Structure formats: C-alpha cells, structure tokens
Amino acid sequence: MGIVAKRTMREALPGFVALCHPLPVFFHALAVSIFALLAGWPHIAWGAFVLVVLAHSAMQLAIAVHNDYCDRYLDAQSKRSKPIVRGLVRPREALLLSIVFIVLMFMFLLPLNPLALLISVLYLLFALGYNLGLKSTPLSGIVFALAIPLIPVYAFVGMGRIVPFIFWFIPVAALVGIALNLANSLPDLEDDAAHHARTLAVVLGMRATLLLIPLLIFCGVCIVVVLSITHLVATRFWIILPTLIVVGALLGSLLIFFSPPIAPSRRKSYFNLVVVTCLVLAAGWLISILV
C-alpha cells in the first residue's frame, strides 16, 4: 500500500469522505428516515426521530469504514484508488474512526427503547461478521437476509411503536436483502472470482445473478399482494396499486436496460436502481398500511 509520510488536509479530507462511502450510507439513512417517519405518523416525536436516524447512520458509517479497513490488502491488488491504498488514510486511523462511529451509535441509542439497542447490536454483529470474512462466502446472502429485515423493525421500535404488521416485513425484507447483496456484489464480481472469493454472486455467475435479483424482488411483491388480498395486512388500494405499478416498471427496467453482461461502469447504476426499487416497495407498502 502506498502509505505516504505526510499529507495535507486538502489530501486527507477527500480520503476520509470516500472511506465513509457516503452514497450507500445516505441510502440507509433515507430508508431508516422513511420507516421512522411512518412509524411516528401523524404525531412524530422529533427527538426520538433524530436519535433513530443518527444512531443508524453512525452504525452504517462504522460498517463502511471497517469494510475498507478489512479489505485493504485485497484493495491494494485490484482497487488502487481506495483511500487507504493511496495513503490518504492510514489503516490505524480507519480502525479508530470505525470505533468512534460505534461509540457514537451507542450514545445515540441509549436514550431510546432498549430493544432498539439490542436490534442495532445484532445488526452490527451481522455486518462486522460480513466484513471479517462472511462476504467471501455464499453465506453473504444469508447475512443480508437476516440483517435487512431488522431495519424497519428497528425504526418502529426506536420510535416506540411496536405493531404486529411490522413483522410481516421480515419475509419481504429477507428476499430484498438477498437481492441487495447480489446487486452490491456485481461491481466486484471479476475481482472476487480472481481472488477465489466464493461470494453468492460468484457462485451463481452474472447471468443467474441478474435473473435472480428481480425474481427475488418480484417474490416480495407477491407476498405483499397476497397479504393485501387476504386482508392479513389491511392496505389502502389507491396507494398500494400505484406502488406495485411503479415497482413493476422498475423491475422491467432492470430486465430491459441491464441485460447480461453488464459493463463494470454500469454496475453501480444497476445497484442504485435496485436500491430505489426496494425502497419504493417498502415505503409504498408501509404508507398504504398506515394512512
């Protein structure tokens, strides 16, 4: 790794920003914000809302920084633009920064429901296990399937609203979690295969992965439709129908505009579109229940 002896603040600051993976963290913060607003609507406790979002954001920042710390040797071979590899951030600084974010997470969580703290710790353990080696195995998809459902549950619990229907999100979010894991693995598919990392996407291959991602989201849509039709979860028809139409259009876009093989330069765009599709499904379904 090209560690430099001295850095200017002008050089170091962009490195620390990149180390935090601001766009993925923003998506997580957005998801938690949406769920927390829906949990508190129409009488939102803004103090609890801020703490819920800040705690989850701090945790995601810790996970993102820790991920680059764990991957620094692999990145030195294939991703030389990474801030640790370039010497903009030293490994011990990255490790210390991730610990600082974890401490901040606990500080924000302490005033909230103890169950919110427990859920966050469980999510953090899944994520750290992923960073420390599980992401290089087919178990990576299972880790996402276990972790992603915790996000809406955490938001509702953190806002002090524990309702039975939120647990119906678990099977839908598990399917979405595997889809997100596969989409997140696509930009590194060739590098992972070259370094003998047996991620779920590597095991499946690009063609099967690109078919499975929309299929998993579609299965989540089917669960939502069945729950709505059977009234196991009551929804507003005038909200859930447009939501499903938009999700269907987004799934069609994934299949039409991203046929295999996807060029490496387009894979981040594909991942972002998958994230948007999942957010629309989750948020639209929740709104149709709560309004």
Give a description of the structure.
- Helix 2 runs antiparallel to helix 3, helix 8 crosses helix 10 and helix 14 runs antiparallel to helix 15.
- The protein folds into two domains: 162 residues, Tetracycline Repressor, domain 2 (Orthogonal Bundle), CATH 1.10.357.140; 129 residues, Four Helix Bundle (Hemerythrin (Met), subunit A).
- 75% of the residues lie in helices and 0% in strands.
- The chain is an all-alpha fold.
- It contains 15 helices and no strands.
Please write out the topology.
Layout: H1 9-19, H2 22-40, H3 46-70, H4 72-78, H5 83-86, H6 91-109, H7 114-131, H8 139-147, H9 150-158, H10 169-185, H11 189-194, H12 200-204, H13 206-229, H14 237-257, H15 267-290
Helix pairs in contact: 2-3, 2-9, 2-15, 3-6, 3-7, 7-8, 7-9, 8-10, 10-13, 10-15, 13-14, 13-15, 14-15
Produce a short descriptive summary.
With 291 residues, the protein is an all-alpha fold. It has 15 helices and no strands.
Following the backbone from N to C, one meets helices and strands in this order, namely: HHHHHHHHHHHHHHH
The averaged pLDDT comes out at: 91
CATH names the topology of the largest domain as: Tetracycline Repressor, domain 2
Task: Say what oligomer this is.
Answer: single chain
- Low-pLDDT sequence parts: none
Taking the sheet with the most strands, its summary is: none
General shape: globular
User: Which class do the helix and strand fractions yield?
Assistant: mainly alpha
CATH architecture of the largest domain: Orthogonal Bundle
> What's the structural domain tally?
2
Cα-based radius of gyration, to the nearest Å: 19 Å
In helices, the fraction of residues equals over 70%
